UniProtKB/TrEMBL annotation:
SUPFAM superfamilies: MFS general substrate transporter. The chain crosses the membrane at residues 20-43, 55-75, 82-101, 107-125, 146-166, 181-201, 228-251, 257-277, 286-306, 312-331, 352-374, 386-406. It comes from the Bacteria. This is Major Facilitator Superfamily protein. It comes from Bythopirellula polymerisocia. InterPro entries: MFS_trans_sf. Keywords: Membrane, Transmembrane, Transmembrane helix.
Amino acid sequence: MNKLRNEFLHFLSYPHNMRILLLTNLIYAFVLPVIDIFVGAYVMRNTQDVKMVVIYQLAVYTGIPFTFLVNGFLLQHISIKRLYSAGMLLSGISMAVMMSLGKLSMTGVGVAGLMMGMSFGLFWANRDFLALSTTNDSNRNYYYGLETFFYTNTYVVVPVFIGWFIEGTGLWGWFGGDRVIAYQIVTAMVFLLTIVSSILIHQGRFENPPKSDFIYFRFHWLWNQMQVLAILKGLAQGYIVTAPAMLVMLLVGQEGALGTIQAIGGILSAFLLYFIGRTTKPKHRIIIFTVGLGLFALGGLANALLFNATGVLLFMVCLLLGRPLHDIAYFPIQMQVIDTVSAIEHRNKFAYIFNQEFGFFIGRFTGCGLFILLANNISDTFALRYALLIIGIVQLLSIWVANRVLRGCRESAPSKEAPVQQSSDMILEKQVPGLG
């Protein structure tokens, strides 16, 4: 109890806005597993078509960068707290639209996906800026370690509870044995949680980014390297959101099993991740980054070699630890680069958050495209079996790129004694109304 009290006091030692943001993300963390896992499972169950699941995900990823753009203009007139809460609420509305559809058609799935993409765009654009503005390089390991601790635990608890609730509907005849009603009840709970998190975020004293240009086409070379890292990260994001649901529904068969698999090793990894965030320093990020990517590749290899329930189990365990390790290291690296390059180029920091989303989009589109290409030209089974391994191997290039980025940050950090010179890219770029 003393240790828990000390950890709580340590949490209270951080700034008010940082604590409010973490608590808001804690509540919303109960929503994300439902969106990530069970929406894909719902589409899979009602269409029996893995390509329809990927089409839904492509619609989501198409809506995100468009909403990042709209959000940039809205920030000049609307409080960032309201936009952030709007994104959370829209995710619940999108799920409600999906559940209200009778027969899932490509058009219906696409519309629901676009709405979910818009909710993610509002959520992530504003969340990333708030995380950047309320933290500094010395406390970002702790921030992302604690946030990942929240997310990892909810990815254990929520799938178990919801998975067995949905499966129990069919086994014990709740609601007439109609699983659709069970999904609708889950959606109602999601919407309630988004309301609570939306109220909490308004307790913070957050400031909007300055009113200035945020769209640029030329950047410092260090940011271009960071974009390569974003593309490689997006490559896994494009497929990893729906892959677990598709693999479990194909090889295991029940939503309850989906929840159980998520629970294996989850609690242990959550506390390990908190310990890593609590004790590590910026110099340890590349090690954490490497371990996370290595685990993802190892999980993809297990799935490819076995391609059965055991292979899915091993992949999910690797993913459960590898994905958050990757995030703990990636986002502080991203913010360190934004701090460095924005000081060199004298630009609004939101410009880099906005621009990076297009790097993620290219990677996500490529990841989804790889799956569709393999499924159409070879088979669905081949795509489910080998796409993860291919992506995992390609992603290992991120280690080399991240080393270059961190070295570039050390070499390119503006001197406190000398005035910063504008980059040649800034001088060359063409100015157009509303753009930099």
